[in-house]
User: Fold these one by one.
Assistant:
Number 1:
Amino acid sequence: MRRPRDSESFKEYNFVLNYQKSEAEIFKLKGNLQKVALIFPNSYKIASGSLAWSWIQNLLTKNNLNVQRFFYEDWFSKFYSLEEQVPIDEFQIWLFTFQFENDLINIARMLKKKGIPLSFQQRESYHPIIIIGGPVTLFNHRIVEDIADFVFIGDLECCSNQFSEALSLDNKEEIENNLLKIPQIYSKKYRKTNYENCIGNLSPIPMAHYITPHSPFKNKLLIEIGRGCIRRCAFCVTGYTKKPVKFAKLDDFIETLDRFKHHEFGLISATITDYPYLDELLDYIENNEIRFSVSSMRVDKVNEKLLKLLRITDHHSFTVAPEGISQKMRDIMLKDLSTEQIVKGLEIGRKVGFENVKFYYIIGLEEETEEDYKELIEFLNQVLKLGYKEVSVSINPLVPKLSTPFANRKMIDKKEYEKRTAYIKKSVPKGVKLNFESYKSMKIQYEISHLNGNESIRYVQEKFEE
Ligand code: SF4
């Protein structure tokens, strides 16, 4: 790639290049056909923690597409690809992976910065084809129906060959006509409103093709062990949109661990503790001294072996998500988790040597009373008595989501949220660290998750003006 001449572009080019240099390749991906921009509309750090960013590239490159990854920073203007530092203007196909609602603002900003009208109705034939897929489109594809030329709903594994073949064509009209034949494509622009969702199976096992120290998983090789969740917590879209749940086969999984055993692994799943072959997997990990961390686990299902093995890697802290501040609230949230089960898990954590513990809670439901908050404080006192030296508590307001039993609830207003958080601040025992999620950002998440059609365009335009 030619180096940019002006200093601003050079700074951006170097910024991207440094991230590219930080990546150690596990295996090479190289395609020679059509160039496709795979965009994660957030920072490199967030993007590199997502297995999807690498795995989509892997699936499409297998069909010989030249897929290059992009990420987003507010100050970018050119947007260079990671692989070859090619400016995004040179790509005819832009494929966004829409993982978090708030990224809608970055998608819109990026289009605006590149002079591309937000609405498909105002775009011309010389503009790139905009395709948006990812977990957000799975629970509300209408958020981006007026922005995307095509919305992809579901998992790419289900149609990766057909999708790649469509993208590999040279002529824009041919590409679009072929995309419309794919069952998982929805397009308001072309009035294709029938679509089929499909959850891909995990064979071959999805894994990243690189590691980087900048990822939240720090140089760990990401491998997907399960997709979807067998549970149905009332606030969580994963439990309602990703069914039937798919798990990696134990033999395939062990074979992959064995092939790359000089690496540390980040095992990705909604909850590793629901993996049906967990005991056998842990035996293998223990016998082969494999180091790993997990994206999430249920405290009622942890056992001594799992926690011991996690601690060997780099887990200084044990993370627990009771979500509800009391038993009553957990029951309302369909969390299916008792205080006794949480305490038992915490005792095992102490037994294997954890000294720090982090809790995640959701507050702001209309059923909450002072009694529920008192139960939280009582519980935190109990945790300190177990001997944990550092207890961190993260508090988030409930964001009611479509496709869940909480879909028709309203989000708590800011004043009431502040009243409830003030109570927590004044009541938590000494030694407990509190972290409150920004109300503003969660409110944006709530608003975006409920947008439809051209409301989204109006919404992001208002955000640009703020
Ligand atoms: S909160 Fe966790 S356990 Fe509950 S449905 Fe979602 S992913 Fe599953």
Number 2:
Amino acid sequence: MSGRAPDLAPAESPDALRRAFSCFPSGVVAVCAHENGEAFVGMAASSFSTVSLDPPLVSVCVQNTSTTWPRLRSRQVIGVSVFAHDQSELCRQLAGPAPQRFDGVDLLCTDGGALFVAGAAAHLLCELHAEYAGGDHTVVLLRIRSLSANPDVDPLVFHASTFRRLTIDPAAEGAVTGTTS
Ligand SMILES: Cc1cc2nc3c(=O)[nH]c(=O)nc-3n(C[C@H](O)[C@H](O)[C@H](O)COP(=O)(O)O)c2cc1C
């Protein structure tokens, strides 16, 4: 059975694109680093994606206008924290004015320079692996060197320009195999 084609808007319309992109739910991460317990630098990103198990890779897409990424990319290691469901305000703060991003935030510093947000669902200690041009964004591949994770912590979900929390649908519950996550 086939139905009528959907009404398709031209992809040149940024509003139509934003609307379509917002239909795809994602988690949100903090991508952060420090130097000797200070010089904190970081940002929130919803473009995080898992990429590869071997080698262990994840990606984020960074706007080419970002003033934070040029400072982060030169650091030896970068901490990626997967925000927990109760960290939406923290996420907003890490996307807000750079000088106040870390004010009052409970942070975890590794010796090498990775900076994590306490209470996150997962912490990935990463090195920059590769960067690719991706239109008005840069696709950044990060190689995971070490990690800690707690899948029992509900993640923060970003969908339709707002934050949400996952609920389990009993009818669909059950392990899904054959994926990287
Ligand atoms: C929920 C949310 C998701 C975001 N995701 C991204 C992202 O994936 N990539 C990105 O470059 N900026 C993203 N931003 C914006 C950055 O956090 C930050 O505001 C932006 O990089 C401008 O700051 P900068 O000049 O310090 O980089 C997001 C902001 C919010 C609130």
